[in-house]
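Sanity check

After download, print the first record. It should look like this:
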Amino acid sequence: MSIILNIETATKNCSVALAKEGKTIACKEIAEQNFSHAEKLHVFIEELLAENNLQFSDLNAIAVSQGPGSYTGLRIGVSSAKGFCYAMNIPMIAVDTLQLLAKQIQIEDGIIIPMIDARRMEVFTAIYDKNYTQIRNTQAEIIDKTSYQEISKKIHLVGDGTEKFKNTLTDDKFVFHSNVIFPSAKEMSELSFEKYKISDFVDVAYFEPYYLKDFVLSK
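Expected structure tokens:
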């Protein structure tokens, strides 16, 4: 039986989940303004293992949210995952952060656009169909009243980046899911297990998070 530790730190939510055979069995997470990831992440991991009578040696893999998102948050999560994988000689799995956001809702028609707040009127976005298949590449995007005019379907918006556009995206086709704010490690369990089964691993030594840094730092 595979046991995977899932780590999600791409946003203000510091989230860790344990999964057996793709099912979340326990999760600890907290979202704070001051990014407490550095002090909370390892505590959460140790508590989860202890509370479930597991040791680090019981883990078969570590999965980490790869971004896009906060530079600091991603760096902390990926660095921790690399350290654990290297020390225990187990594989590392990378999961797309925006897909984690998209999977928090179920829709019958239309598309899902997860948005992670970047700065000002900019967000990190991608577009997914109702089956969570990505149909437009991830990008840093400045949103205005002309955004998504070419799309006639219902557009379901999730993530902390959506709130600032409620007065901008006013067409009836936009559906704001305000209860879905941050990605969570709970949604990683199924995705990481699917990758584990086909040995879709990343190189522990050379893997880098998907910062979208070139967009964020441009003037």
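If your output differs, re-run the checksum step. Summary of this record's structure: The chain has five helices and ten strands.
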